[in-house]
Protein: Large ribosomal subunit protein uL11
Organism: Endobacter medicaginis
Amino acid sequence: MAKKIVGYIKLQIPAGKANPSPPVGPALGQRGLNIMQFVKEFNAATQNIEPGTPTPVVITAFADRTFTFITKTPPNTFFLLKAAKITKGSPTVGKSAPVGKVTTAQLREIAETKIQHMNANDIDGAVRMLAGSAKSMGITVVEG
């Protein structure tokens, strides 16, 4: 018999840096899950990712107080900021000068990494989605 699922918890935690403090502790504690077990397993699962990379995780909580989790690829904005070599997007998109540049080749590379977690049918669709995200962050997309 399959275990009864009592809920899903979605968090974004820096890779290899999970700890029992908020948001992890309270989110797992209210479901009665073992917080330290999750912290150890998450940090072990993300040890091959660059430390500090924001990593979305979906935790499935079961009625018997056990859990499973799935890590996903970092958000598009993280890759775009890294590719443009900037720390944050423009606060006033369209009004101020662009804050950085990315090439279409960089967008294709990001799309190939992200494709399994994107709502796109093919790489070209994913590249167009990333170009839209870049534009909304004040990043110019140049050919290359």
Summary: The CA atoms of residues 112 and 123 lie 7 Å apart. The first helix runs from residue 24 to 29. The first strand starts at residue 5 and ends at 14.
